[in-house]
Design brief:
four-stranded antiparallel sheet, six-stranded mixed sheet, alpha+beta
Length: about 280
């Protein structure tokens, strides 16, 4: 049976990193400025193909600590390898990937942010930082910066400095924190659009036909989970093609479609442009 390569223990950042990795915390070195080391020449601009979209942890086939936060690893052979040795000698700090460690760090950058957390969030493990505190919760979520003044969320696809184990009992990630990254839809603004007037033969047997078409168009826009711009344009095109030449389509119908698009994040300008482009495509 092959014996594993002995893990040398040394003082400083490498020793901290080895201890953390041995405990299941994915680590990586931070250079001066507290940022990850840049990719090596072979991995620059992700030319190596490793870490597709940076969605998975650990190094690619390159043995160096490349790919930013995605270099974080619990592999002791990698952490203590000669290829990482130069980085550890130059490192200013040790970082870890909270999401891969199963936690979320609420980074409170100043006294006002800390006061807000104490009023709003359940108590949990805290770690003092130079200017504020890290509040650490059990559970993961998407990371986001500046979710409110002085507050960042560090969890999945992110890194945080290791500043010690902290104090207090870690509690479960609350919905209050998760809701910080949920974007509220922008208020729907009234719009003025050019609705085609009559001139063509009406193909609608009853007002219900048009109402059903508008309702289906609203539903198609609302259900879009990607390519919202394209979905809005295609929907406008379909509505104008079916209902735009006989004079039955009104400003109220168009406003309903614009409102549906704006609840998906489209601006009034985007809506107007999509409507105009659809009319032009149909020769209206």
């Amino acid at each position: 049976m092959t014996q594993p390569t002995p893990i040398k223990r040394v003082s400083g950042h490498l020793r901290t990193a080895v201890d953390l990795a041995a405990g299941g915390v994915p680590v990586l070195p931070l250079r001066v400025g507290k940022a990850p080391f840049g990719n090596c020449p072979g991995c620059r601009d992700n030319a190596c193909g490793g870490r597709p979209n940076m969605k998975t942890p650990g190094p690619c086939d390159c043995p160096h600590p490349c790919h930013g936060w995605a270099a974080a690893t619990v592999n002791l052979e990698v952490v203590n390898s000669p290829d990482w040795a130069t980085a550890w000698r130059q490192a200013e700090a040790v970082a870890f990937c909270p999401g891969e460690a199963g936690v979320t760090v609420v980074d409170l950058d100043h006294a006002d942010a800390i006061a807000w957390a104490r009023r709003t969030l359940p108590t949990t493990r805290t770690v003092a930082t130079k200017r504020g505190e890290h509040w650490i919760y059990r559970g993961t979520m998407p990371s986001a910066n500046a979710v409110r003044p002085g507050v960042d969320i560090k969890s999945a696809m992110s890194y945080a400095r290791w500043l010690g184990p902290g104090t207090g009992t870690m509690t479960t990630l609350p919905d209050t924190v998760r809701s910080l990254i949920v974007k509220k839809p922008s208020p729907v603004r009234p719009v003025t659009v050019a609705v085609p007037t009559g001139g063509g033969e009406c193909r609608h047997r009853s007002p219900a036909y048009l109402e059903r078409g508008i309702a289906m168009a609203e539903q198609r826009i609302t259900a879009a989970t990607s390519s919202v711009h394209a979905t809005v344009y295609r929907t406008f095109l379909a509505v104008l093609s079916a209902h735009g030449r006989c004079g039955c389509l009104t400003d109220a119908h168009a406003a309903r479609l614009f409102a549906a698009a704006q609840t998906k994040g489209e601006s009034p300008r985007h809506c107007t442009d999509a409507w105009s482009n659809a009319r032009t495509a149909l020769g209206m």
